[in-house]
Every structure is written in structure tokens, then in C-alpha cells.
Amino acid sequence: MPNSQTGLRRTMKKRSTKFGLNALAMVLIVLALLILFNFLGNRHHGRFDTTAGNRFSLSDHTVKLLKSLQRDVTVSAFFKGENKLLRDLLSEYTYGSKLVTFRFIDPDKEPGITKRYGITQYGTIVVESGDKEEKIDTILEQDLTNAILKVTREGKKVIYVLQGHGEKMIDSAEPTGFSVAKEALQNENYQVKELVLALQEEVPQDCAVLLIAGPQKEPLPGELESMEAYLGRGGKLLAMVDPSPAAHLSSFLAKWGLNVGQNLVIDASGVGRLFGTGPAMPLVTSYEPHAITEKFNIMTFFPMARSITPSSSPPEGMQVQSLLKTGPNSWGETELSSSKVLFDQDKDLEGPVTIAAVVDQEEIADTTVSQGKTRLVVLGDSDFASNAYFTFSGNGDLFMNAISWLAEEEDLISIRPKDVEDRRVSLTPRQSKMIFYISVILMPLAVLVLGTMVWLRRR
Questions:
Q1: Looking at the whole model, is its pTM more than 0.90?
Q2: Which of 13, 56, 114, 199 is deepest in the core (most CB within 10 A)?
Q3: Torsional sign, CA 46, 52, 55, 60
């Protein structure tokens, strides 16, 4: 027994035994760390997208929608074989919400399911939730998100567009028209209708938001009374008034704590030259704190804008605040008839100039007819949301965020997904030949020559 203990002590003192025990301890520690990291990674994990424009990440708009889901959503993709691009995109959706599931169906192998869904061509995607379903035929995040929105929202809120005073035409595809804005509204499950208020006794009861886009003539007194009654029962208004000689609605808006400037906002920063315009296109890069502009970090442009400023003494119960302000190199020009624009300290409005404001009434006196909180968003320009400028930087997002806030759908306020940018490199025939000669001939030849020189020197 003593001999065995002595042998054990000798063995433990050996250098090889110590190295072996240290190695075993290190292996156990590494395994313990791997188990710990795996456990923590399973419970707390993050993902990073280092591509330009976050190409492989969902937009804020989609992420907010997925987080707000209350119902299961199933996406069925009818493809002949699997589409990797679509699988990667759908995997992002399932990562964003456990309520989203997807499956690929080969129409040739499963004709029964294909016939039940009424599929007639490859590449059709069916999004369903409950008894609602939407079909799309593109592999785009924007279309997929809009389909999910349509099948998960109850009913459609109606946007009424005032007509009869020279406003922007909601169906016009001309550069000054609003057909792009209308399509964007319909994609987010809104119903858009025209409203000639002169032929109506009142604003329809189902009006979620009343839109006034650049009227050229002032509405009739009876129409203004109908709009006041609508707002008085908790209505929502998005008004966009252009500079003179367009209508300004100043008397009507003054009752809600807003001053409409009789001016033209001039931006002397020179940004207008980038778009082939003059200084009458102010640029906005910073935004006042509000739900509409929360996390809004992209530029917006406003061709031909006038100032819209909160009143110093707003009506009781009204919360009035600025929403958009131009840069410090801008001002409100009051000499509209002059061909030269120079800042006049005594006449002009010194910048930064407020060109959009928000009114929010927290309490309604007559709760028996209230439709909710009265809300107004007023901008000093309507062209920013026209077909010519809707896709400019953040213009479309600003318009849609204003509608979402007015319709009390704050969960839709975000930056919408953009079309995937084409980042392919186009080469001329000469450049292609140069790359071929350098990579296929010169570089291998250089390696061969250097290798030969090294071999000869060693010999």
C-alpha cells in the first residue's frame, strides 16, 4: 500500500502528468465556456448587417409591423423548386415574429393545394391570416409587408380627398398628380375617395382623414363650416397649402392656432442646384420631436413652400407645435413680385423657418359625437408629395407618417422599405480585357517568374 501511494505521488509529480492534467482542465474549461455561450446566445442574441443600405435587413416599417402582430400569418410560396432569395427574406420575417410561418409548394408535385388556392402561374405567393388572403407575384419586402398588413388589419379606413378648388388630382399620373401617393395609401390598406364638399351637407361619418392637397381657390363658407364641424367632433385633417397665388386657408387655420405666412421660403444653402432648381426648394434635415418624425433621419425637400407657424396664443385645449424647420440659411421672402430675392431684416421672416406644424386636441367637449382626438397636420407645400417628388429621399415617408398619425395608427409610423439598389458594376469592353490580361496572364506569369528566380538562387 505504501509503495502504491509512493508510485502515485511520483506519477503525479511527473512533467507529462502535469501537462496532461492541465490540458484536461483546459478542455473542461473550454467546454464549460462553450455551453455557457451557447445558452446565453440562445436566450440573448443579436444580428448585424454590414452591407451598404442594410440590404439583408428588414426596414423599420416591417419590423414594427411584425412586432405588432396579434394573429398568425402563413406565407405559401408556389415555386418550381426552392427560391433561395425568397427563403432568406422569409427567414427574416420569421425571425421578427414567431407568428409568421412559411412554406414552399411545388405546383407540379402538389396540384391539389395549388388548385385550392387558384394558382395559375409559378412564382405566386399567398399571404393568409384567418379568412383573409392576398396574392403577390414579386419577391420584394415592400409587397410582402403590404400583403401582411392587409390580411391582419380589420376593415379599411377611408381617406377623403377634397376636390373642387383646383387641388392636386389624386388619380393623375402627371408629375403634379397624386397617383403615387394614392397607391402608397392603398398599399397600406386605406381606401381613398374624392370629396366634393359643396355637394355634401357634411364630411362623411366614415372619414378617417380629410386630405386637402394644394387648393388654388378658397373653399366656400359653407364648406369651411362643414370642415369645422368635422374637426369639432374629433376629425383629422392633413392640409397642404402652397404659396401665393394659391389659396391659403389662413382664416380657417387661425382658429386652430396656426399662422399661414404670406411669403415664399428661400433656402440660400445652394442645395436646390443639385436638383436643377433654384433657392425656392428648401431642405429639411433635422426634425422637431414628434411621433411623425420619430427616428426620422433622412432629408426632405419642399419645392415652393410658405411658412406655417404656431400661434403665440393658441386656443384653449389645443397643443400646437412646429414639425419641420428649414436650415439657418433660409428665410421667408415677402416681396413675391420682385425678381431678386434678398433678405430684408425689417420685412422678411428670419430663418430657420417653420414650414409644417401639428395641432393635437387632447379632450373633446361633446363626447357623445366624438370620433376621438382632433388632430391637424398643416404643411406649407403640396408639391413635395406629388408624383415628381414623392420618391425623393424621405418625402413619401413623411407624407405616409402624417397619415398614419392622423389615422391613429402610430404603429405604422416608420421608414418604409425601398427598392433594392442595383449595385452591379458595368465595364466597358476595354476594361474587361484589361482585367482579363492582368488576372489571367500577368499575375500567374509574375508568380512563375518569381518562383523560377528563387529556385535558381537556391541552386
A1: no
A2: 114
A3: positive
